[in-house]
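User: quick one, sequence for these tokens?
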């Protein structure tokens, strides 16, 4: 990948060659659209890793899981629901080289423990208790340990998964205790995994190599695989540079090499990206339904809100945005000039603003002039978009479309009102 600065257009007509207006007309809005080619491109960027394991929490639509599976990508599951999704998308349960599905979490709820036991799904343990709980039910297995190396970093404090403020992983000073627990149940520790945060920078990610070497030396030669976790960032803003994958791969290859020499056998290298594979492929199309001024602020209000894309309200996350002008006879009401606008959604909550900074501070963005009926296209919405959607304000979950091989496939139908109230009952009076 060449390091070039990203520039996002603010006026668009199409997504990967597909007319925004036609997509909106055919499938309605709000609508997530995923470009399969982009996901495949990102998978290929990681071809120096022995195993790419997709962190499906980023986007677990069955069609996306099926797509990455067809391109040789293994999958991570963090819940019983994600195990069911992986199985439904055609992944095989059970151990393997590499195992197609791995359960990674800090706890087992009762369903997930049952599932990993009955389907023999390999487990990456994020707490000492998980070692005991699995050992009691399935002694003699191989396990891997997710280690918290004592430091972490994320694009936001909420996505930092290392250090003592974080609940994730096994504390790096408790390896001896874990070795004893594993031995009690005849469990073999065959791998180590570290994920220090999501959307972090390469400098922090690189520090993980050193921590991995140290902990691996304590565990010893039962280790046959190491995982660099996820966390790779993607360009969300103009001027952001794509991450330097080859530099990153080199560092991890050196770590893998060093451990292989120390142990006298091959050590395989995994990476576990979510955002990197899915984010850039996705756009959220919404229709602008009202334009109004509040004092000095001009608001574009669209029919997608934080029920569809929660990243801005949760983390103050920045997403590129563009306007797509709808075909209409009268264009005269819209000037061509850019203007500072606040972009919000339909929800009955003042935090329902896409242009906000962490802490909830509303800001504005320069966008082209638009009229009601034009479309708002929010970019880089393929990761942690639809999966974090909710039914707040009784809004249906959005439809999702996958563009692949010249075809548009509806891969998730928009929820109906009946879907929203399914399972609710009024007690008899
Ligand atoms: N592996 C583990 C163990 C993780 O906890 C995560 C993310 C990943 C891999 C994938 O990380 P990625 O490659 O996507 O950075 N909702 C937040 C992100 C939360 C990430 C949680 N864990 C956001 O929208 O930024």
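Assistant:
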């Amino acid at each position: 990948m060449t390091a070039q600065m990203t520039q996002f257009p603010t006026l668009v007509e199409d997504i990967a060659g597909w007319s925004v207006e036609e997509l909106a007309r055919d499938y309605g809005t709000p609508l997530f659209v995923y470009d399969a080619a982009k996901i495949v491109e990102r998978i290929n960027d990681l071809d120096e890793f022995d195993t790419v394991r997709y962190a499906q929490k980023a986007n677990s639509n069955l069609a996306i899981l099926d797509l990455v599976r067809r391109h040789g990508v293994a999958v991570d599951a963090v819940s019983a629901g994600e195990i069911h999704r992986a199985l439904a998308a055609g992944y095989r349960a059970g151990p393997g080289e590499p195992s197609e599905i791995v359960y990674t979490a800090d706890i087992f709820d009762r369903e997930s423990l049952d599932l990993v036991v009955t389907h023999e799904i390999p487990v990456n343990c994020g707490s000492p208790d998980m070692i005991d709980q699995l050992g009691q039910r399935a002694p003699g297995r191989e396990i891997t340990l997710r280690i918290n190396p004592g430091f972490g970093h994320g694009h936001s404090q909420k996505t930092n998964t290392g250090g003592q403020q974080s609940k994730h992983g096994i504390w790096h000073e408790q390896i001896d205790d874990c070795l004893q627990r594993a031995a009690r149940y005849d469990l073999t520790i065959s791998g180590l995994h570290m994920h220090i945060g999501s959307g972090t920078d390469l400098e922090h990610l690189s520090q993980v190599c050193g921590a991995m070497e140290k902990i691996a030396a304590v565990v010893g030669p039962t280790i046959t695989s190491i995982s660099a976790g996820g966390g790779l960032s993607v360009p969300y803003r103009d001027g952001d540079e794509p991450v330097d994958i080859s530099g990153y791969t080199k560092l991890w290859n050196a770590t893998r090499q060093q451990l292989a020499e120390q142990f006298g056998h091959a050590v395989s290298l995994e990476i576990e990206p979510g955002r990197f594979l899915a984010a850039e492929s996705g756009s959220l199309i919404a229709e602008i339904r009202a334009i109004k001024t509040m004092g000095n602020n001009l608001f574009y209000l669209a029919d997608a809100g934080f029920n569809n894309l929660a990243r801005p309200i949760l983390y103050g996350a920045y997403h590129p945005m563009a306007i797509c002008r709808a075909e209409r006879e009268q264009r005269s009401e819209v000037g061509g000039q850019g203007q500072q606008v606040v972009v919000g959604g339909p929800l009955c909550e003042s935090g329902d603003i896409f242009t906000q900074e962490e802490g909830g501070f509303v800001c504005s963005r320069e966008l082209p002039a638009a009229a009601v009926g034009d479309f708002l296209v929010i970019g880089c919405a393929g990761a942690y978009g639809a999966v974090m959607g909710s039914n707040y304000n009784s809004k249906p979950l959005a439809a999702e479309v996958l563009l692949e091989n010249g075809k548009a496939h509806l891969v998730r139908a928009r929820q109906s009102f009946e879907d929203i109230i399914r399972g609710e009952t009024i007690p008899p009076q």
